[in-house]
Amino acid sequence: MPDARIGDVIAGDETSSVDELLDRAVAAINRGDRVTANSLAQQVLTADKGKVDAEDLLATSDEPGEIRRLTILVADLVDSTVLSGRVEPETYRLLVGRYRQQVQSIVHRFEGYISGRQGDGLLAVFGYPIAHEDDARRAVHAGLEIVHQVARLSGRRSAGLG
User: Fold this and answer.
1) Which residues contact 15 (CB under 8 A, 6 or more apart)?
2) Residue 12 pLDDT exceeds 50
3) Which of 36, 59, 93, 143 has the fewest CB atoms within 10 Å distance of its CB?
4) What is the average pLDDT across 9-21?
5) In what order do the strands lie in the sheet containing 121-126?
6) pLDDT at residue 11 is higher than 90
7) The pTM of the whole model exceeds 0.85
8) Do residues 40 and 24 make contact, with C-beta atoms less than 8 angstroms apart?
9) Percent of the chain clearing pLDDT 90 (strictly above)
């Protein structure tokens, strides 16, 4: 039996009904009723073809998801741009390469995952792909070890040891 609001949405008489219909579709997907959610999302798209939220709902996987707590660690060299202007390009590349190797090694040792790299920055995730009860602690220990190793690299650079 059709809902009166659905008719209003399809006829375009009530703009707020599109959002209400979308809310009902989300509620249906949350309770595991994929058939109803898809039907409601299709009706939203009939009324508003550009409704991205309804398109996203239809595109979601049927596989159940998993909620995890992740700890994110960002490592970035301070003043690396200044350093790049003070040393030869080959020396800079070598230093940044050693820094990246150190960070990757440390993150992997604490069972984190390097999720992204940009310039001299790295983004590490703890809790993915393997979750641990102490992922936040692991990230903190990794961060402290990174700071220690960067200080060592900096000391070696200052002493002219490369």
Assistant:
1) none
2) no
3) 59
4) 61
5) 71-75, 121-126, 113-118
6) no
7) no
8) yes
9) 30
DSSP state of 160: T
- pLDDT band at 75; cut points 50, 70, 90: very high
- State the amino acid at position 138 in one-letter form: R
Looking up tokens 């984190």 gives 112
What are φ and ψ of residue 95, in 5° steps? -65, -45
Residues 145/147/151/156 CA torsion (nearest 10 deg) = 60
- Which parts of the chain fold into alpha helices (H)? 4-11, 15-30, 34-47, 52-59, 80-86, 89-109, 135-158
Q: Is 139 helix (H, G, I), strand (E, B) or coil?
A: helix
Amino acid at 8: D
Fold adopted by 71-158: Alpha-Beta Plaits (3.30.70)
The amino acid at 76:
D
Residue 22 neighbours by CB distance under 10 Å: 21
Rounded distance between C-alpha atoms, residue 48 and residue 26, angstroms: 16
Q: Do 89 and 102 form a contact (C-beta atoms < 8 A)?
A: no
